[in-house]
Each structure stands twice: as structure tokens, then as C-alpha cells.
Amino acid sequence: MKNRTFYIVDVFAEHKYSGNQLAVVTQPDGLSAEQMLQITREMHFSETTFICSDRQADGGFDVRIYTPGEEVPFAGHPTLGTAYVLSEILQKETSGHIKLNLGVGQIPVTREGDLLWMTTHAPRFGRTYTIEDFAPVLSLDATDFDPNFPIQVVSTGLPFVIVPLANLHAVRRSRINPEALETLISDPKDTREILVCAPETYNPDCQLNVRVYVPLMGIPEDPATGSANSCLAGYLSEHKYFGSHTVSIQVEQGMEIHRPSCLHLKASKTDSDHLIQVGGQVQLIAKGTLL
Question: Considering the entire predicted model, what is its pTM?
Fold first, then answer.
């Protein structure tokens, strides 16, 4: 295996050693899918990306995203972190615009000041569940849920079950019960990835506290999840969670696992479509070589 450069960045991080860690590997030509998965497991982050082209194809750069369990077509913090490495380090792009060719298609990323913003695909809304369905899954009581909004599957490229809870205390107490989850969602085609949220926060600058559980992808709890929060943004807009189809908020995540993260969400809805954007800061942590 020839030497390959990799970078470690923290995404959705307002300062170093917070947010969600990401390894970005360059020059992965010659690596098999199995080798990429092995490297991802060696890095031991929730995702590792591989920049598969040093020149643009169809206006964007080819990128593959792996979790410790499998390759995925889209994920949020890998998109922003990889765009940062491409634009700030490899390409030294000064226009503030770059596009990634991912499994779900092309995703544009733009810079506004300290923030990188990705524009995701429009949300698709799937099945709903009852509070009685999900109470045992999250090891909670029925009174811990917000009865005013549905528990619903939403996807902007990677599906998540959005679960609105009543308060921060409920979010902090939530725990995945694997047996109850398997009993409720036994069809392997249905998503088991879960986002819980509540309108109480540790940080007064944020409007929602979020936790994300992705156990079947080898991620018991994720510290900052752009793909899940893009689904959340569409959900908030669709159901007028804040009283309007227009959303512009900050979300905190990762507080309970000592990786405080800040995600910026923007969403709007017209008669024909949704516009979803997720933004955050990226911090460069390290550069190394795979031997």
C-alpha cells in the first residue's frame, strides 16, 4: 500500500477538540472497498471519507463515505469536513463554493464567514409511529414525549426517525433498548437511526438539544450529525414546530458524550419544495500518512 495523506478535522466545532471527528483520506486509488472499511475502523471515528478525484467531474469532486459498519451514500459532517479539506487545503478554492459527488448525487457547499453550509436534497416524509411504540425503545415514559408533533421517518438522503421529546430531562434520560428497537422495527429495509430533540438547551444561544443514535452503523451515539439534522430541519419546517414553515436556528448536540457541537439549520417550504441548509464550523486538528 503506497503512502497516503490523511487529515483529521472536527466538524460542527466552535473550537478544537469538540464537534464530530472526521478522517479525510486523499489518493485512495488502488484501495478496495474492504480496505476503505478497514481504514475507517482503524480511525475509529463515526465516519471516514475518501477523496477519489483530484480533478472535478461534472463540476464536483468524487467522495466516498464510510462508517465503521458500511459505506453510506450521504452524511452531513463528512460532507462539510471533506469540503473544508478540499477547499482550504488541497484546492485552495477562493470562491467559497465547492461541490461533492456523493452516493445521493451532487451536494453543494458554500462558505459564509466562519461557517460552511451544505444544501441537501429536499426531505421525504415516511411512516409515523405512536408514543406507545417508541417509549420502550428509548427507555422512557409516555409523559416524556411531546404529544403535539408526530414521531416520523424523514430522509434527505439518509433516513432518520425524528422523535420530539418534552424536555431536556427526557433527552438526557433516553437510552436505546436494542431488544425493543428490534421488536418494533424488524424489517431490515426500515430505518433504525433515531434523532431525539427537545426545546430546552444547555447553551442559551441554541434553540434545540439533540441526541442521535445510529447503533446498527457501529455508532452508539453520534456527537454531531448533519444528515440527521437536515432531516430535522425539514421536519421542523413541515410541521411548523416553531410556528412557521421558515426555520433559522442553532442546535446543540453531543453534550452528553463530552463532544459539544453546534449546528446551524435553515429551512423553508413553498407549495412545491423545501430548501434545507445545514452549517457549522470546521477545525483542522492533524495531518498524517497511512503507511
Answer: 0.93
Cα distance between residue 73 and residue 102, in whole Å: 6
Are both 141 and 268 inside the same structural domain?
Answer: yes
Together in a domain, 144 and 244: yes
C-alpha grid cell, residue 78: 463528512
Does residue 84 sit in the same domain as residue 40?
yes
Q: Give the H or E element holding residue 39.
A: helix 33-43
Q: What is the mean pLDDT of residues 190-212?
A: 97
Cβ atoms 216, 206 nearer than 8 A: no
d(CA 280, CA 11) in angstroms, rounded, equals 7
Pairing of β 274-280 and β 115-119: antiparallel
Residue 52 to residue 40: CA distance in whole angstroms? 15
**Number of residues written out for the chain:** 291
pLDDT per residue over 244-263, tens digit each? 999 999 999 999 999 999 99
- H helices of 122-262, where? 131-134, 168-173, 178-184, 226-238
Domain count, the chain: 2
Do residues 103 and 204 share a domain?
no
| Domain, as residue range, for 285 | 4-119+280-290
